[in-house]
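Researcher: Next sequence.
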Amino acid sequence: MRGPATRPRHVIVLTLPLGNGHTAAAHVIASVLRRDGTRVSVYDPSEGLFPLFPLARVLSRFYRFAVNWRAGTVHIALYRLADRHPAGTSRMVSILFGRRFRSWLASIGPADSYVSTFSLLGYLLAEAGGAPVVSFVTDAGAVNRIWFQGAVEKYIVPDTGSLATALLCGVDSDRVSVVRPPMSAGVEMDKDQARRRLKLEDRFTVLVTGGGSGLGKGVLEAARALVSARTDVQLLLNAGSNADLRREFTDLCATGTRCTVTGFSPDFPLMLAACDVVVGKAGWLTLNEAMSARRPTLIVDVVPGQEEGNCSFAEKARVGRRIEPGDVPEAVRRYAASASALKEEFSFSNDMLSSAWADEMARDLKKTLTG
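Model: Next structure:
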């Protein structure tokens, strides 16, 4: 295994717009590495790989279509193909994009080390050779085997399930590190303060969110069920960057229900602090933001294959549970009627949830990158 002998002067982190979790992880990693003065650059290759073609926008729209059309049929097919034939899929991507990727990589300047938050980018980086590559796996459980292809220097995985997949793929144990979930520091504000900042009433509040990309039909179904049931609660409907979902949410609120509709907003941490429970999908980013704020998540959307491990992780840690969208109003009524109901069903004292995760990640990344 290669090992850099000197402290890195410049780390480049690469990501792709196929789910907001990959991009968010890239920026979190960058912020961790910058703590001691390490120079870090974050790039999305799809923004520069084809100067005259809007690849980033096409990928983002395709991902949204793939996970939503006909219950995610397209995404399921592609996910299974990659999992069953990881080496062949990686090689095909290299044949199609490898030369242009290497040319683009040379154009952004040299780096002492690379970090990838998307599986195929780790493969392409390792294939390009030169500086060592760290691949940061952004899902939990039995993740797709395509993550563990190529001569990647080190893998950072979130749990023992993803570690097991790496070992089954033939990755040496000394090339894999388990780092606890990427929980942010959260918002240092209590519930009452957050509600005042957001001009909300002081009542039981449910945050319904489709994540940063506003994905998930179950999220919309759950919102409709809550509005139709006329529960005596306050709703925060967050559509992320999905304009269509925001319009749907806005139409729902026209009925006079107590609710606030938002799109992608820097106030999302405030919304988490203001709410009592989150209703959303099993995206790794969404779950970890909720865990960071110590808010339980009712999971109404799970992208097949990709997010099933995340859902299992949340249920095992007792920070979330899977539920049918139509059953959300009944659960919310029960939680709103009794504060003890939430405490009995969910727990945030599990050892898997460490507020010191950033320090652990920083130590592991620096050890990997500096040798």
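Model: The longest strand covers residues 10-14. DSSP finds 15 helices and twelve strands in the chain.
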